[in-house]
Structures are given as structure tokens and as C-alpha cells.
Design goal:
It contains 18 helices and 13 strands. It is of the alpha/beta class and about 425 residues long. The protein folds into two domains: about 230 residues, Rossmann fold, CATH 3.40.50; about 180 residues, 3-Layer(aba) Sandwich (Rossmann fold). Strand 11, helix 14 and strand 12 form a beta-alpha-beta unit. The radius of gyration is 22 Å and the shape is globular.
Length: about 425
Amino acid sequence: MTKTSPHTLYICYFGMRQPLVETQVLPYLAELSNGGIKVSLVTFEPNLKRDWTIDQIRETRERLSEMGIEWDCLGYHKSPSAIATAYDIVVGVRYVHRRIRADNVDVLHGRVHVPTLMGAIARRLSKQKPKLLFDIRGFFPEEYTDAGVWPENGILFRAAKRVEKWLMRESDAFVVLTQKARDILFPGSEDHGLDRSGRPVEVIPCCVDLENRFFFDKEPSREELRRELNVENRFVITHLGALGGLYLTNEIADLLETARAKDPSTFALFLTQTDPDLIVPQLLKRGFTAEDFFVGKVPPPDIPRYLRASDVGLSIVKAGYATASRSPTKIPEYLACGLPIISNRGVGDVDKLIIENEIGVLLDDFSIESYRKALEGIIDLGDVTEKCITTARREFDLKTVGGYRYRQLYARLLEGADHRARAQKN
């Protein structure tokens, strides 16, 4: 049987129900499928046997099949951490090795280090040698030390760095999220898109689906949404995403306290799946009442509605070597809803984005004076709604930026294999 289109196996060490998969995995895979790539996806599901019924798995497979994605799932094990991850890697390697042999896979696409390791080992054990795409996303070992999960320069950190070094040698192409990350890992690759070994390197920031998820022509107006959420006549400051770890919860609370002192109408909106106890006591201690904030989970389809009812979005995260690789998903989501941004300096390409496009302000430090200056700067910007949306379209659109760059990268990655196949045929 003649093979008609390239086949990629995307290995994702997250569960299907995690919002990140819904917003930052499936849309890209749908774009690859639309570009003529046969797409298979394997995820690792926490409590697979307890939380998933046979009918739910079947329904999810049918939904993804309509997007051009073939889905399979394995169990995820959490503790003890290192042993559980090692077990999952063994299971993942066996699964990927089997798929390579059965499906003649052309590309193994690993989302960050652990899935790429599964792909690299499975390829080593296989007679067939599909291309290996290392979708780096972030500086994973450094992120774990910065967040306090691993001790600095400890055994796990050193082991992860050795694995990372091997994966950098084994891989055939790379994705990073920021220009800063490319400059660090692949100096000199910006002009021609190749590393020193001639392997393709692409910068693909976290993008948003402006055509479907952030399309508002038939939606209620901002004023109607504010009435619906009971935040009329209030200055709404929003934090979207996780709290704790690298996310500076105390500093966020201090900024909100400063905002409330300046404008008593300030309302704090936290759209997060993190335990509310990480932030609620901090707000209460700073004088907020239950009527002055909302902290809770919001279904991904509803997030744009809440953002459109807001006035400013926060992106405050511990800056360091690891965050040079970060492209915060919240940034394009804020911009797509017309929200200006308050961010600290030193996170990925955010500084340049905000300064060049005039769509927010940067904190000089984490002092009360800096918070006051930032809040005044947001007011001084005036109405930048259209400027924010235009920036989102130009820099973060799923189709014209994310999908396009992934398709281009796949074309370059598979070009050599196509040449060899044609030569053998002739």
C-alpha cells in the first residue's frame, strides 16, 4: 500500500483534560492535519482507570478524529516522583516503539524533555528511524530548581541536564518559544533557521485561535459582560493561570493592594485551577473583602468572556535564566481580548513585545513605588484595545504564526527524507 502523507506521532506527558492540552496542543495538531500531515497523539492520563470510562474515551476519540487527530492514552503516575516518571518513560518507550513498527511513523514529536526522551530511546531500539522533533518549550531543569522543586545542582538536576544534552545531539529539529531561547541554545541560527549542524530551528510562541476561540462579532458587548459578572464601575485587574512556584503570589497581592489604595473600586479576578488558599488569605490580609475578588476555575471556552470584562492583565513570574525561554500563554490571550499588560522584566520576549508595541507597562522592581508607577502608566496609555488586538493578530495568531511555522518546520524536516525516498524509487 502506497503511503500518501507523512505521519507524526505527538507524545505529550499531560492529560487530555488539562487546559494546556486544549489550548496549546490540539489547535496546533489540527493545523498540522489541515496541512496534510497524518497526526497521532498519545497523552498520559492521571487516574486513567478511575476517571475515564470506555464511553468517555470513545467520545473523545471521535471528537478528535473530526479534527484530524488520532488519539491514544496511557496512564500517568505521580509518586514517588522520580520512580513514577521512570516507570512512565519505560511504558512510553514500549508504546512508541510499537507504533513506529506498526504505523511507519515519519516524525516523533516530543513536547518537552520527557516525551522526547521516550521518542529518542524508542527510535534507538527500532530498525526504522523516524525524524525526532524536540519541542523544547522551556528550560525544564532550570525551571524546577527556580521553582524550588529540585535543589540547585542536585542529583535530579544534573541527571536532567545530561539527558537534555543527549537529546540535543539526537534530535533532528527543534522548536523554542522565544528569540532569547534561540540565541542561548542556537546562536547564529536566526538568519537562516539552522543550527551549526544544519538542523532546522523554529521560534513558535504560544499562540491563540483568533478565528474561533477569540472571535467576538456575535458576542455580548464588554458593557453587557461587565453587568453579567457584576463588575460594573469597577477597575478589574486579572491574573490568568497558575499561582505559586515561579508565579509570584505575594508580589501580585502587593500590586493589587497598591491598586486598591489608589482606586477603591479595584476588583481582583483570578482565573486559576490553583488552590484558592494560595491567594485568598493574602487578599483578605490586605483589606479586600469577599465582594472585591473572584478566585476560581473557569472552563476554557468562557475565559475570553471574563478577559473582555477586565481592564488589565497581569503576568508576574520569577525572572531568571529559565524564564528566558518562556512565552506565557496568558499574554496573547490578554491581547486578543484587548487587555493591556503589567509584567515584570526579564521573561522571554515580553519586554520587547510590550515596549515596541506600547501595549502595557513593565515593572522596574517589586516595590510599592514601582507598582504605583505601573498603574499610572496603564492609565496614561489610554484606550489601547485595538492596538492590543492588532498585536495579537500579528504575533500570536494560531493560523498565520503558529500553524504556519509548524508546517514550514515539518516541510524542512521531511525534505531530506523525501529526497532519499525519491532516489531509492528511481
